[in-house]
Amino acid sequence: MGTSFNWLWTQLKDNNSQKTKTHWIDYWSKKAGKNKIQIWRPKDKAMREKVANYADYRFWSSTHSLTKNRHINYQIIQGTSGFNPNYCSRMVWQSFYHGSGNKNVIQTSTAGLTYIFPGALVNTFTSKYRPYKVGTY
């Protein structure tokens, strides 16, 4: 296997970032191709904001500032616990699982999953909080 995949075993150091939705869609649709990026959103706006606040705290800045002080290494690892190293869909899952307070947003049975795959993420939500598809880009 070529060196471009070495990060699968060695991690991409300090790889977390914050981007606008437009920047993220533009960047990844160029890499993955058009009509491959999907945006899903839970209907409950207050829950979305609560979880986003948690994700900002857990994965960007412990002071909720624009200055990054959380340095997450990127690596696809087994399990759902632990925050560093981490990977994209697992961070989303963890944010909803841990950041939703005492609300039953994520099915508790999914805490035992080995991996959180992006395409299956929507299926980890309880029916009350199941996200709707905003669009494909």
Q: Descriptors for this entry?
A:
137 residues; two-stranded antiparallel sheet
Count helical runs: 4
State the secondary-structure class: mainly alpha
Reported for the largest beta sheet, the result is: 2 strands, antiparallel
| Shape by Cα distribution | globular
Strand order of the largest sheet: 1-2
Q: Determine the mean pLDDT.
A: 92
Tell me which oligomeric state these chains represent.
single chain
Instruction: Please indicate the percent range of residues in DSSP E strands (runs of 2 or more).
Output: 5-15%
Distance between the termini: 30 Å
Give me the Rg, rounded. Answer: 15 Å
Structure summary, number of beta strands: 2
Q: Give the H and E element order.
A: HHEHHE
Helix content: 25-40%
Spans where pLDDT lies below 50 across 5 or more residues? none
Task: Give a summary of the structure in a few sentences.
The chain has four helices and two strands.
Protein model, in words:
With 137 residues, the chain is mainly alpha-helical. The protein is 31% helix and 7% strand. It contains four helices and two strands. The chain has helices at residues 7-10, 21-32, 45-59, 88-99; strands at 38-41, 132-136. It has a two-stranded antiparallel sheet with strand order 1-2. The longest helix has 15 residues, at 45-59. The two termini are 30 Å apart. The model has no long low-confidence stretch (mean pLDDT 92).
